[in-house]
Amino acid sequence: MNELELKYGCNPNQKPSRIYMEDGSELPIKVLCGRPGYINFLDAFNGWQLVSELKKATGLPAATSFKHVSPAGAAVGLPLDETLAKIYWVDDLGELSPLACAYARARGADRMSSFGDFISLSDVCDADTARLIKREVSDGVIAPGYEPEALEILKQKKKGNYNVIQIDPDYVPAPLERKEVYGITFEQGRNELVIDDEFFANVVTENKEIPESAKIDLAISMITLKYTQSNSVCYVKGGQAIGIGAGQQSRIHCTRLAGQKADNWWLRQCPKVLGLPFRDGIKRADRDNAIDLYIGDEYMDVLADGVWENTFKVKPEVFTREEKREWLDKLTDVALGSDAFFPFGDNIERAHKSGVKYVAQPGGSVRDDNVIDVCNKYQMAMAFTGLRLFHH
């Protein structure tokens, strides 16, 4: 199959639409179920590249949850502790496979953004992962293969219309890539940059200590940024992205946005939030929305009289600003990556509030000294990679 006709492009009025191989070769994918659309394939192909690189960099199964051509979450397949299993709503599934753990982490980091995601998996999809996917609101999945039981589970989703794509893991794209904007063709060499331990060798701060676990987290951060719409920054802890700020025009707004997401991820683990008395039978999406409101500044939207009764058995106490700050101060050893240099030290000041200890960025700002000074103020270790990772 050399081409595949699509229902429409980015929007229903954009017709005709298709994907095809310009050189006449076969498409490296098979659609096993459903009818993926234009944006589905953009998410699928970007996500596939991301998880493939994560697998090569870490040796672990990887998964990502994409929305609107940027990852909402990305992770490798490390085991889940009891708290993470609970906040990701998988504590009823028992012990999960490494690939299922990777997707639970990728989906669970920012569940509000992941609602209706497109999933990319580095490994053959197993039954554990398929069962997890089946009960989430999602548009589709791409993987190098599917176990027979897993495929049958996925084919039951969306009344048989769930998008399931199989990609050839041996496919190698051409070294030059092209796209058209306003009828004009752009061409560039593919970004084949390999991100490994050596990427973080130039540590410019007084604290030179970046342990192996932090290097893995920094690699996850940078590989995630490589496929995130710029400007972007990414907070990572324990083998998973916990806050991604994508597509912001200002670097500090990226850092704040991603930092708030990282804070929310940590606040969800506070006993006060874990113990919220939800009504029986409430849907996961409604729980996610209620938690997001409860831990935010607009908590009265879910706690007001006449409203809280729709969600909770009894009215929860307000999660005060002081209580939240006390809990956030316990978040430590977070890694932070940036796809371009930090122009001001305010980015590091904001990162510190979310427990960042390790930083990787290209460097090259006229204010590098200021950024380094702020890192030294908080005993952070920061590596200059010398390489920008813009993605558009």
From TrEMBL:
Assigned keywords, A-Z: Hydrolase, Transferase
Can you list the GO cellular component terms from the UniProt entry?
cytosol
Keyword field contains Transferase: yes
The record's annotation in InterPro entries points to:
AICAR_Tfase_dup_dom_sf (IPR024051), AICAR_Tfase_insert_dom_sf (IPR024050), Cytidine_deaminase-like (IPR016193), PurH-like (IPR002695)
Q: Give the source's domain of life in one word.
A: Bacteria
Which GO MF term does the entry hold, naming one?
IMP cyclohydrolase activity
The GO biological-process annotations, alphabetized, read as:
'de novo' IMP biosynthetic process
Does the keyword Transferase feature in the UniProt annotation? yes
Tell me where the transmembrane regions lie: none
Protein name according to UniProt: Phosphoribosylaminoimidazolecarboxamide formyltransferase/IMP cyclohydrolase
Q: Upper lineage ranks?
A: Bacteria, Bacillati, Bacillota, Clostridia, Lachnospirales
